[in-house]
Amino acid sequence: MSAWETVIGLEIHAQLATRSKIFSGSATAYGAPPNAQANLVDLGYPGVLPVLNAEVVRMAVKLGLAINGRIAPRSVFARKNYFYPDLPKGYQISQYELPIVANGALDIELEDGGKKRIGITRAHLEEDAGKSLHEGLPGVTGIDLNRAGTPLVEIVSEPDLRSAREAVAYMKKVHTLVRYLEICDGNMQEGSFRCDANVSVRKIGAQEFGTRAEIKNLNSFRYIERAINFEVGRQIELIEAGGKVVQETRLYDPDKGETRSMRSKEEANDYRYFPDPDLLPVVLEEKFIASVRASLPELPDQKAARFVSQYTLSGYDAAVLTASRELADYYESVVREVPQEPKLAANWVMGELAAALNKENLEVAAGKMPAARLAGLLARIMDQTISGKIAKEVFEAMWSDGASADAVIAHKGLRQITDTAAIERVIDEVMAQSPGQLADYRAGKDKLFGFFVGQVMKATGGKANPAQVNELLLRKLRG
Amino acid sequence: MSDLHGSTLTQLAAGLRARKFSSVELVTALLARIERAQGSLNAFISVTREPALAAAAAADRALAAGSGGALTGVPIAHKDIFCTQGVRTTAGSRILENFVSPYDATVVAKLKGAGAVMLGKTNMDEFAMGSSNENSYFGPVRNPWNPSLVPGGSSGGSAAAVAARLIPGATATDTGGSIRQPAALCGITGLKPTYGRVSRYGMIAFASSLDQAGTLTASAADAALMLREMAGFDSNDSTSVDTPVPDYVAALEQPLAGLKVGLLQEFFDKGLDRENERRVREALQVYERLGAKLSVVSLPNLPLSVPVYYVVAPAECSSNLARFDGVRFGHRCENPRDLTDLYRRSRGEGFGAEVKRRIMTGTYVLSAGYYDAYYLKAQRVRQLISADFTRAFQDVDVLMGPTTPTPAFALGAKTADPITMYLNDIYTIGANLAGLPAVSVPCGFVQDLPVGLQIVGPHFSEARILGVAHALQRATDWHTRLPPGYA
User: Fold this and answer.
1) Domain boundaries of chain B, sorted by first residue
2) Same domain, A458 and A372
């Protein structure tokens, strides 16, 4: 394996979050009955013409600026010609020679903590096709054109990725970015965010790229990793057995965990691209680009860097907390309530809260644990009303009942015991009940200290302040 | 009422407003005329008698109430390339033989809004591809001046119908001469406006960067009246231009003193019939008498128009016609075995020979390895031709020349050799490539067949070229001559 290097480039298709389609006024909402959201333009009726949705352009410029790309002052829509039943006009309107964005880049975090810059060759606008339906239609194929004309931005990376892991890290980075920019909902199950992976292998040190295969339509991070790993293994095995990789399009079968040939280069279409005469070139003035730039939100990398400096978080914590804009906003709302303890807030957001959300497959934005409520819990830890351990119990009750920390503490009587006299009374009782252990301890069995701590905590229902228990026990046991 | 057909569209609009006759009377008379002529001319694909009479009755009510637009009650016909809601729209093709459009083209809606009454849809070369109207699935149209001759194409049905005064005005489209060439061959006035002046929405596309809707009428004044209602920006057509629509009718009367007329040297070439040339030169003398200054202008790249056109137009058509696949509308073959069979047979059966030829040519010139040599080079030459026109208009106000090399030719005379047929558009294609407005007006006869003079102007100079055409029609009566048998 180690003699080979993997080379991957991704073409990510992100559905732009506009209300209407790229060239028609039809709605883009997901899940409508088949063809309920296809008007005459989407159906490719005789005589109809496309009209560009200006919002789509604004979104693409946002993306272009966020990846430090070059925004084309003039970009051109072209027709990609091929016949398919779910392609109503017999061509897809896309951008070819003059895309709206070129020469961008994104940094990904590597597993060793380092960073790697991934080049983005171009990002261009295009319309999605419809889809063919087979389920429940024996002997025929149904066509649903609701998706036809949905705006997409295709983000094409350089072949800079060297492993499936890197590919996933890059894909996640783009995923985070498009949601920050609010240009794509990122919903992979509904196909709003998907990619094609161009995969090849070459001997380490080789200058030339190997022949690549393109794996189409990967719509989950897990599938991307598996599909690429399978494909890399397949290609290496093939070459080592004396074979040759052929340039082709392949499909990933998630059930079998393998890629399968879809069509070879020879069967590939000649798309006969040419500028679409129905649409004018998209001409963007510097003033427009500047206004979009001014509207950009704080981007994930900027936000993470700020979290490190402002909240003295580790780079790792900052990266996790800024993975989505909602999570970052939530974290900052918590910190606003407990500004002295940003690290404590980070631990709870990334720990208990993340675990609870995960278990119920919820987003932080779902509102099950408002930031102020979590901050209320942290305040009780900070003022020593409860210990960190008890806090977990309180959190669980808050999560299931939707109650505030104070209510749970009062209702369950979980207030921490910090009264020295009260703790001493318990210690005295424990010592009186365990004369044997006391004698052994005093004879030098230091390990029994833990036994006494446990007994005291048990007797107080875990509520005694642990630090005080330790200190008082030490003194009393010494006698 | 039997002589109403002899009036121009302008006269009819005024007569209706003055309530000298009713729209129902007028429409009834013209429907009878259309039906009588159908067997000999075949100018219509559909005649919409009932809706026309209903619309005429509604127009009469509006006129009685003193409301209504500029064309209220005026009968017109649409070339069957414009989508008309609830009415069959065929584009002259078998593939759309039974296609009923669910919407109105912008041009149709605007004329309807102005009060015009549609009597039917006119015959045409299939998908507007042709110069003789012999490429229609619904049979050829015949020239009213001589039924053994072609009316020209592709708007042959609209031209023949207006020439025979079956209708005072008709819409048409011009991609390489499809308005002006049949206007010349039928002895009427044909206007192709500036590209972008009239919306293409709802006009079935042949070659999108060249297609332009216009008019076929008896006079330049009628063209001005129709264009005023048809022109304007349309948010449904990104290539339509948002510039004000002048009152073309009010601008008709223009002094010609000092008008600088450029004679297109390249149009007076070997291919131009001597007699045809003589008629054109006689018209030029009329302009001189009216005060115009004539000079010869050379557009060196203009002779490349035909080869450029026959790369660009087929390329665009090969893509535009891909939507006719038998899946959603139009002709579908019987019992397709699979998807490929569905495509092959639906399109194979649905399209005629010329359309197939152009789809194949277009597919070829866009193919990998040929794109640069054909499509890209053609686009570059197109730019050169445009630049030639721009340069010429620095020195002259309008350009003039013949519309066609010869008068109308016999049915079947050129069908065997597509190149000969294509050369019939040699003088008209340039204006399409450069997106310029141009009008063809009758300027005399050669052996009892009408001949056309072509006037080309700078972008958005419709008011100017219509005024110049109108001046000729004030000074001559060629445009008032009617074909024998249709007086």
Assistant:
1) 4-259+397-480, 303-378
2) no
pLDDT in tens, B328-355: 999 999 999 999 999 999 999 999 999 9
Q: H/E/C letters for each residue in A154-203?
A: EEEECCCECCHHHHHHHHHHHHHHHHHCCCCCCCCCCCCEEEEEEEEEEE
Same domain, residue pair A87 and A166 = yes
Decide if B154 is catalytic: yes
Choose the final residue of a domain: A236, A256, A291. A291
Question: How many whole angstroms separate alpha carbon B307 and alpha carbon A181?
Answer: 49
By Cβ distance, the residue of B83, B318, B339 closest to A47 is B83
User: Catalytic pick from B22, B23, B46, B79?
Assistant: B79
Give a yes or no: residue A388 inside a domain.
Answer: yes
CATH architecture observed for domain B4-259+397-480: Alpha-Beta Complex (3.90)
Which pLDDT score, from 0 to 100, does residue A478 have? 81
The minimum CA-CA distance between B29 and chain A, rounded to whole Å, is 32
Chain A residues near any Cβ of chain B (below 8 Å): 40, 43-52, 79, 81, 83, 85, 88-91, 143, 270, 272-274, 277-280
Mark which of A412, A433, A452 sits at the end of a domain. Answer: A412
Contact at CB, B319 and A88, closer than 8 angstroms? no
Q: At what angle do helices B220-230 and B9-17 cross, to 10 degrees?
A: 70
One-letter amino acid at B136 equals: S
B210, B200 Cβ separation under 8 angstroms: no
The domain of A323 spans 298-412
* Optimal mutation site among B79, B98, B99, B103, interface A, most CBs of chain A within 10 A: B103
Say what percent of chain B tops pLDDT 70: 100
pLDDT per residue as tens digits for the range B211-220:
999 999 999 9
ipTM rounded to 2 decimals? 0.96
Contact residues, chain B, for A278 at CB < 8 Å? 205, 208, 238-239
Q: Assess whether B46 carries a catalytic annotation.
A: no
Question: Which of B328, B346, B359, B371 should be substituted to probe chain A, the one whose Cβ sees the most A Cβ atoms within 10 Å?
Answer: B328
